[in-house]
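Can't attach files on this board, so I'm pasting raw text. These are the components:
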Amino acid sequence: MKCGISRIQRACEKIWVRALGVDLAADWFWKTRVISRVWRRVFRNQTDPKPPRRSRAAIFSQAQSAIWVGGIVLIAAVALSGCAVVRPWERAVLMQRVMTPVSDPMQSAFDTHVFRTREAMSGAEVSGGVSCGCN
Amino acid sequence: MWVQLTLISRRGVLVTSLALGWCYLNDPMMAMGQSQTRTRVDVYTDEWITVVSPGASGSVAASDQVTVEGGYSVDILSGATHVLTTDAVSSATHFDEVRHEAHVSTSVLVTPRWSVGAGYTMSFEPDYATHAVTLSTGSEILDRMAQWSLSYGISFETVGQVTDERFSESGHGHSLTFGWTHILGKTTTITATLNGSMSFCGTVIGCHANPYRFVPVVTSGDPVSGIAFSLRERHPDDRFRGAAGVRLTQHLGSGFALSGAYRFYGDSWEITGHTLETGLAFGAWDERLILRLDARGSFQNAASFFRDDYRTEQDSGVGPTYRSADRELSELLTGQLGFGVAVHFPAVGPFVRLGINARVARGVYQYDDVNEFSERHAWIAGGGLDAEF
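---
Top answer:
Structure tokens for the assembled complex are below.
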């Protein structure tokens, strides 16, 4: 019976993690010792070896698939929302300064400069900001 | 020796020039026909380097349709770079350097919903110069629920070496950026950006390599019995990059707004990367006071030719074709946490609005593939004034 629970639990674990497609979450899960101790005490034999730590590259590679799924969901959200029109007089909240990611575009430019110097990555920095649609 | 450009390298200059041009051309304030001026000082400092960057920019509404914008900034670099010599002993070399950058751009509102723009950016330092031209267009569509923008940039760069006047290498690059902002509801927006760029560089050091940086290698044989020597850093002659990013912003009510962003990056050097950002903003007193808390994390894997130590490579005796001592091409994990405050005063003297803002952030960079100096910790702080009239 104990063996059966353990097998079911492990299967659920795999399904939960695979379904979300975020192995990163699993890695983080095992790193948070308090939660993993409780988890193992309740569901697993305490002598079970800790799952081997995987390289960050492998984790992020698998997380990538989940992110693509997220992207598709976002695109679908945009497509579905295309039917609802927000008129200019309804955009007061959208035009608030808190809806832009930075207070000063020069600060944003300096940050971008730092990131592009400290990392090999560049491009597609997303700033945001919408039009009031009032002219 | 101020010529050691290892830390704030040339890599970012070219692409940053293009990005700056794109950012300014797409500044929503420009489309609104307002005139404004900004001044700002930013400081970056870590264990190796300090960069002080003062700058100023201004935009003038020449008419209801035409806006002209210009700016100038300086990066004053000071620090010490660690040079790995052939016997693997690191040494620190002090350097100072000044980089100048100036840009000018114009935006024309052809129709109330369609604008075009052009910009020019130049950046120079004693051993490096770049010139970039950006053309852009954008409009509002779908009952003004969406905005798109398209920007093309071309840049030309020349890399020199102050210790060797004969050394000169030229390159050029192209960049194409497409942006889409969509209003999802009365309190929600989403922005997506796609960017592709191509760099074609010289054949002596290749793209984004440092002419002052040498890489310890060893002739064929094992690292102990082989003959150790150093070769100039050498990267591939071209580089193709692609990136896609998305940002979702949601107003939470009571003056709070939350945003989250993700970016995927990939290039022809087999580097792939992921960047996550999140920010929480709070506005009080009719948004005269705004507080911001932001966090950013990124991960990238190493370039295909990057090695921490090329002396362990078995080769034909002439060294590896491509070699790099640039730790920013290694596997990299970064994190940053920042806090900012902005205060705005309406109708002060001749100004429609006057604002002051400040921000401080803490950044950590972790290079897992690199044995020596595998971490750096940075403080990034800055403050600015802006005025609309």
